[in-house]
TrEMBL record:
CDD domains: AdoMet_MTases (cd02440)
Domain Methyltransferase positions: 52-135
Signal sequence coordinates: none
InterPro entries: Methyltransf_25, SAM-dependent_MTases_sf
Name of the protein: Methyltransferase domain-containing protein
Recorded superkingdom: Bacteria
Gene3D superfamilies, per database record: Vaccinia Virus protein VP39 (3.40.50.150)
Length: 216
Protein backbone atom coordinates (compact mmCIF):
# COMPACT_ATOMS: atom_id res chain seq x y z
CA UNK A 1 0.00 0.00 0.00
CA UNK A 2 1.41 3.43 -0.84
CA UNK A 3 1.45 6.20 1.78
CA UNK A 4 0.40 9.82 1.32
CA UNK A 5 4.05 10.95 1.30
CA UNK A 6 5.20 8.64 -1.47
CA UNK A 7 5.50 9.94 -5.03
CA UNK A 8 2.51 8.96 -7.14
CA UNK A 9 2.03 7.64 -10.65
CA UNK A 10 5.20 5.57 -11.10
CA UNK A 11 2.95 2.73 -12.23
CA UNK A 12 1.97 4.89 -15.25
CA UNK A 13 5.61 4.97 -16.35
CA UNK A 14 6.91 1.61 -15.15
CA UNK A 15 3.94 -0.42 -16.38
CA UNK A 16 3.28 -4.14 -16.82
CA UNK A 17 3.96 -3.62 -20.55
CA UNK A 18 7.41 -2.15 -19.82
CA UNK A 19 8.03 -5.06 -17.45
CA UNK A 20 7.08 -7.63 -20.11
CA UNK A 21 9.46 -5.99 -22.59
CA UNK A 22 12.27 -5.89 -19.99
CA UNK A 23 11.68 -9.57 -19.19
CA UNK A 24 11.76 -10.51 -22.89
CA UNK A 25 15.02 -8.59 -23.33
CA UNK A 26 16.51 -10.34 -20.29
CA UNK A 27 15.48 -13.79 -21.60
CA UNK A 28 16.96 -12.94 -25.00
CA UNK A 29 20.24 -11.27 -24.02
CA UNK A 30 20.68 -11.27 -20.24
CA UNK A 31 21.42 -8.28 -18.02
CA UNK A 32 21.91 -4.75 -19.29
CA UNK A 33 25.32 -3.13 -19.01
CA UNK A 34 25.42 -1.71 -15.44
CA UNK A 35 23.90 -4.75 -13.64
CA UNK A 36 26.14 -7.03 -15.72
CA UNK A 37 29.20 -5.12 -14.47
CA UNK A 38 27.97 -5.51 -10.88
CA UNK A 39 27.79 -9.29 -11.30
CA UNK A 40 31.29 -9.26 -12.82
CA UNK A 41 32.61 -7.28 -9.85
CA UNK A 42 31.17 -9.92 -7.49
CA UNK A 43 32.38 -12.99 -9.38
CA UNK A 44 34.76 -15.61 -7.92
CA UNK A 45 32.89 -16.06 -4.66
CA UNK A 46 32.92 -12.38 -3.64
CA UNK A 47 29.21 -12.46 -2.78
CA UNK A 48 28.96 -16.02 -1.38
CA UNK A 49 26.34 -16.20 1.37
CA UNK A 50 25.66 -12.46 1.34
CA UNK A 51 22.24 -10.88 1.41
CA UNK A 52 21.24 -8.32 -1.22
CA UNK A 53 18.74 -5.46 -1.16
CA UNK A 54 17.91 -4.31 -4.70
CA UNK A 55 16.20 -0.91 -4.52
CA UNK A 56 14.22 0.03 -7.63
CA UNK A 57 14.66 -3.57 -8.71
CA UNK A 58 12.40 -3.51 -11.77
CA UNK A 59 11.95 -7.10 -13.00
CA UNK A 60 14.53 -8.29 -10.45
CA UNK A 61 17.04 -9.59 -13.00
CA UNK A 62 20.08 -8.33 -11.09
CA UNK A 63 18.91 -10.17 -7.98
CA UNK A 64 18.49 -13.41 -9.95
CA UNK A 65 22.01 -13.20 -11.31
CA UNK A 66 23.50 -12.35 -7.89
CA UNK A 67 21.78 -15.44 -6.46
CA UNK A 68 23.33 -17.49 -9.26
CA UNK A 69 26.69 -15.87 -8.36
CA UNK A 70 26.36 -17.07 -4.75
CA UNK A 71 24.22 -14.54 -2.82
CA UNK A 72 22.04 -16.14 -0.14
CA UNK A 73 18.84 -14.17 -0.64
CA UNK A 74 17.50 -10.97 -2.18
CA UNK A 75 14.96 -8.39 -1.17
CA UNK A 76 13.63 -6.44 -4.14
CA UNK A 77 11.81 -3.14 -3.56
CA UNK A 78 10.18 -1.05 -6.26
CA UNK A 79 7.83 1.91 -6.24
CA UNK A 80 5.81 0.46 -9.12
CA UNK A 81 3.66 -2.67 -8.80
CA UNK A 82 3.81 -2.93 -12.62
CA UNK A 83 6.83 -5.25 -12.39
CA UNK A 84 5.36 -7.78 -9.97
CA UNK A 85 3.92 -10.31 -12.45
CA UNK A 86 6.93 -10.35 -14.77
CA UNK A 87 9.28 -10.62 -11.78
CA UNK A 88 7.31 -13.54 -10.32
CA UNK A 89 7.37 -15.36 -13.68
CA UNK A 90 11.14 -14.92 -14.06
CA UNK A 91 11.69 -16.12 -10.50
CA UNK A 92 9.58 -19.22 -11.05
CA UNK A 93 11.39 -19.96 -14.35
CA UNK A 94 14.71 -19.71 -12.51
CA UNK A 95 13.48 -21.98 -9.68
CA UNK A 96 14.58 -19.35 -7.12
CA UNK A 97 11.21 -18.19 -5.79
CA UNK A 98 11.96 -19.08 -2.16
CA UNK A 99 15.03 -16.86 -2.09
CA UNK A 100 13.54 -13.52 -3.13
CA UNK A 101 11.16 -11.28 -1.24
CA UNK A 102 9.44 -8.42 -3.06
CA UNK A 103 7.92 -5.26 -1.66
CA UNK A 104 6.19 -2.39 -3.41
CA UNK A 105 6.78 1.13 -2.12
CA UNK A 106 9.16 4.02 -1.70
CA UNK A 107 12.12 2.93 0.40
CA UNK A 108 12.95 6.56 1.21
CA UNK A 109 9.52 7.11 2.78
CA UNK A 110 9.23 3.62 4.26
CA UNK A 111 12.65 2.32 5.40
CA UNK A 112 10.88 -0.58 7.14
CA UNK A 113 9.99 -2.10 3.72
CA UNK A 114 13.30 -3.98 3.83
CA UNK A 115 15.77 -5.22 6.43
CA UNK A 116 19.48 -4.28 6.24
CA UNK A 117 21.54 -6.35 3.78
CA UNK A 118 25.22 -6.97 3.11
CA UNK A 119 24.99 -5.41 -0.35
CA UNK A 120 22.53 -2.71 -1.38
CA UNK A 121 22.10 -1.96 -5.10
CA UNK A 122 20.45 1.02 -6.81
CA UNK A 123 20.86 0.60 -10.56
CA UNK A 124 19.56 3.65 -12.48
CA UNK A 125 17.31 4.54 -9.56
CA UNK A 126 18.45 7.89 -8.11
CA UNK A 127 17.81 9.41 -11.57
CA UNK A 128 14.14 8.41 -11.15
CA UNK A 129 13.75 10.07 -7.75
CA UNK A 130 13.76 13.79 -6.90
CA UNK A 131 15.04 13.57 -3.30
CA UNK A 132 18.21 11.56 -3.91
CA UNK A 133 19.69 12.70 -0.59
CA UNK A 134 16.83 11.14 1.37
CA UNK A 135 16.79 7.94 -0.68
CA UNK A 136 20.55 7.44 -0.39
CA UNK A 137 20.57 8.21 3.35
CA UNK A 138 18.00 5.45 3.90
CA UNK A 139 19.70 3.04 1.47
CA UNK A 140 23.08 3.61 3.13
CA UNK A 141 21.50 2.89 6.50
CA UNK A 142 20.53 -0.53 5.10
CA UNK A 143 24.01 -1.34 3.71
CA UNK A 144 26.12 -3.47 6.04
CA UNK A 145 29.09 -3.87 3.68
CA UNK A 146 28.66 -2.33 0.23
CA UNK A 147 26.37 -0.03 -1.65
CA UNK A 148 26.53 -0.08 -5.46
CA UNK A 149 24.74 2.46 -7.58
CA UNK A 150 24.64 3.78 -11.12
CA UNK A 151 23.65 7.31 -12.05
CA UNK A 152 23.69 9.46 -15.20
CA UNK A 153 26.75 11.59 -15.89
CA UNK A 154 26.20 15.29 -15.37
CA UNK A 155 26.30 16.46 -19.01
CA UNK A 156 24.33 19.23 -20.75
CA UNK A 157 22.62 16.78 -23.11
CA UNK A 158 21.46 14.52 -20.27
CA UNK A 159 20.18 17.57 -18.39
CA UNK A 160 18.26 18.58 -21.55
CA UNK A 161 16.86 15.05 -21.85
CA UNK A 162 15.89 15.20 -18.17
CA UNK A 163 13.97 18.42 -18.70
CA UNK A 164 12.09 16.99 -21.69
CA UNK A 165 11.10 13.77 -19.89
CA UNK A 166 9.92 15.72 -16.86
CA UNK A 167 7.61 17.89 -18.99
CA UNK A 168 6.25 14.76 -20.74
CA UNK A 169 5.74 13.06 -17.38
CA UNK A 170 3.45 15.88 -16.18
CA UNK A 171 1.05 14.99 -19.02
CA UNK A 172 0.95 11.45 -17.77
CA UNK A 173 0.02 12.66 -14.26
CA UNK A 174 3.02 11.19 -12.54
CA UNK A 175 5.54 12.52 -10.05
CA UNK A 176 8.22 10.60 -11.93
CA UNK A 177 10.90 12.58 -13.71
CA UNK A 178 14.40 11.79 -14.97
CA UNK A 179 16.84 13.76 -12.80
CA UNK A 180 20.57 14.32 -13.21
CA UNK A 181 21.84 14.76 -9.66
CA UNK A 182 25.33 16.20 -9.19
CA UNK A 183 27.73 13.34 -8.47
CA UNK A 184 29.33 15.29 -5.62
CA UNK A 185 25.99 15.48 -3.79
CA UNK A 186 25.28 11.75 -4.28
CA UNK A 187 28.66 10.66 -2.93
CA UNK A 188 28.51 13.17 -0.06
CA UNK A 189 25.18 11.73 1.12
CA UNK A 190 26.70 8.23 1.21
CA UNK A 191 29.96 9.31 2.86
CA UNK A 192 27.99 11.06 5.59
CA UNK A 193 26.50 7.63 6.39
CA UNK A 194 29.90 5.93 6.81
CA UNK A 195 30.39 4.59 3.27
CA UNK A 196 33.37 5.48 1.18
CA UNK A 197 34.08 5.24 -2.54
CA UNK A 198 36.16 2.16 -3.42
CA UNK A 199 35.41 1.76 -7.15
CA UNK A 200 34.08 3.99 -9.91
CA UNK A 201 33.87 3.49 -13.65
CA UNK A 202 32.13 5.00 -16.66
CA UNK A 203 29.45 2.82 -18.25
CA UNK A 204 28.38 4.81 -21.31
CA UNK A 205 26.13 7.68 -20.24
CA UNK A 206 26.17 6.41 -16.66
CA UNK A 207 28.70 6.03 -13.84
CA UNK A 208 28.86 2.90 -11.72
CA UNK A 209 30.17 3.37 -8.18
CA UNK A 210 30.83 0.98 -5.30
CA UNK A 211 31.01 2.30 -1.75
CA UNK A 212 32.28 0.30 1.20
CA UNK A 213 31.38 0.66 4.86
CA UNK A 214 34.20 2.05 6.96
CA UNK A 215 32.23 2.61 10.17
CA UNK A 216 28.87 1.49 11.58
C1 LIG B 1 14.94 3.05 -14.59
S1 LIG B 1 14.22 1.87 -13.54
C2 LIG B 1 15.60 0.79 -13.26
C3 LIG B 1 15.18 -0.62 -12.91
C4 LIG B 1 16.34 -1.57 -12.65
N1 LIG B 1 17.09 -1.17 -11.48
C5 LIG B 1 17.22 -1.68 -13.86
O1 LIG B 1 18.40 -1.27 -13.80
O2 LIG B 1 16.75 -2.20 -14.89
C6 LIG B 1 14.13 2.73 -11.97
C7 LIG B 1 13.24 2.03 -10.97
O3 LIG B 1 13.44 2.61 -9.67
C8 LIG B 1 12.20 2.62 -9.01
N2 LIG B 1 12.33 3.59 -7.90
C9 LIG B 1 12.66 4.90 -8.00
N3 LIG B 1 12.71 5.47 -6.77
C10 LIG B 1 12.42 4.48 -5.88
C11 LIG B 1 12.29 4.46 -4.46
N4 LIG B 1 12.47 5.58 -3.73
N5 LIG B 1 11.96 3.29 -3.85
C12 LIG B 1 11.75 2.17 -4.60
N6 LIG B 1 11.85 2.14 -5.96
C13 LIG B 1 12.18 3.29 -6.60
C14 LIG B 1 11.20 2.97 -10.10
O4 LIG B 1 9.89 2.59 -9.77
C15 LIG B 1 11.76 2.17 -11.27
O5 LIG B 1 11.20 0.90 -11.35
Amino acid sequence: MSSCCEPQGYDRVFTAGVARRDAARYRRSGLTRDPRRVVELYRSGAIDGESVLDVGAGIGDLGLELLRAGASHVTAVDLSPGYDDAAATLLAEAGLAGRVQRAVGDLAARPDLAAPADVVALMKVVCCYADADRLLTVAAGHARRHLVLSYPRDTWWLRLFARATTVAARWRRTDWGFVVHPERALLAALEREGLHLTHRERTGAFTLAVLTRTRV
